[in-house]
Amino acid sequence: MTDPAHDRADTHRGAFGEFGGEAGGFIDRAFREQIVLVGVAAAAQTTADVEESLDELARLVETAGADPVQRVVQRRERIDPATYVGRGKAAEIRDIAERHDADTVVFDDELSPAQQFNLEGILGRTAIDRTAVILDIFAQNASSTEGKVQVELAQLRYRLPRLRGSGHRLSQQAGGIGTRGPGETQLEVDRRRLLRRISTLEAKLRGIRRHRGVQARRRQRSAQSTVAIVGYTNAGKSSLLNALCGAQAHVEDRLFATLDALTRRLDLPGGETVLLVDTVGFVRKLPHEFVEAFIPTLGVAVDADLLVHAVDASAADCEAQVEAVREVLERIGAAEVPELLVFNKLDAADGVGHLLAAHPGSVATSAVTGAGLEHLTAVIGDRLRAASATAEFVVPFSRGEVMAGLHRASQVLAETATADGMRFRVRIDAASAARFADFACPSPDGQF
Description:
43% of the residues lie in helices and 18% in strands. It has helices spanning 4-13, 47-64, 87-99, 113-123, 130-141, 145-159, 168-171, 186-222, 237-245, 288-293, 295-303, 318-331, 353-358, 373-386, 400-409, 430-435; strands spanning 34-41, 67-75, 104-107, 126-129, 226-231, 262-267, 273-278, 306-312, 339-344, 363-364, 389-395, 411-418, 421-428.
């Protein structure tokens, strides 16, 4: 007999169809869903920690287009492997959901496929987790072809282990030539189609990654530095990009308003020009599926010469947000890239003196009022210059190919004609400088 609760949950999340297009959302936005939030304080976690995490989950749910109507916090020694909260607590949550006429229950930690299936049987309604909510927001906000591919891939990787039969629809045999007799169940056909779609999307992203690799090599040849703005979602990264570069990046006071990397040129006080790249925001408990799918976009952070780590100075838990961002940077291999902490939203914060004192070398700014932006650009220039040495070379006029190579391999700060040839003062890394050692010259007076 078909279980109507399971059928409702499966229909609510959207059918997989032929897996030939964009993945659907996990939250039905045809109306404002009523949501019950559930968090568990296990092991060393405190109830206050869970409440803080649920506050963020509530913002995520609102961003996805639903309304949190109640929250449940449970303290237990360990997570129940079958139902996350235990069958008794699950039944209690079901009663709470019924009293509030809630459509969906959202759990603050990622549910295993078995936990999700068991919970939906007890609750009689959809049970999803924080990961599903974040992926739903991504699906709403992705605008570029690359962003849409990344979001769909992340969703399908999340859904694959959760694809399971529910009633008659997925247990019946698929029809058609070659499938008669024992054949394949519809579930097996769906899984095969999903895997094929994932393979197609992965191939597309490999092409995007190759293209980004070509772009990175071109930047290296032109010796143009790249600065990536990273940070917690809604920390004001896009606002900083706009304020520094006069860009028109989309800015909105909502989580994950930016999913697609945007690059603009930034002129520094020393006359240098660098590429400034806005990146997708991070969040605590960032889904594994997100990190895997967004590697091509997040790769700009790995390849950057400097990370401008934007922090919302007005956030009550900004230190925790800093650590959450650094955890993700470590997961993608960007932990060794030099970092400049920028405490943004100075206009909305009560004070940032304690933050600047706790993080020597950090900068405070307001993208809204412009406070601290001039100092920020100066510090960016100083940090980039400190990362590469300055050298001087004299190249005979007859060696045009050497001059061209020097331009490609370094950042030329000044050049002038002398009796011996063209004299260059450049900023160049040690490996590249070694190629031009025959043309190097000392600069005893430090003047060009």
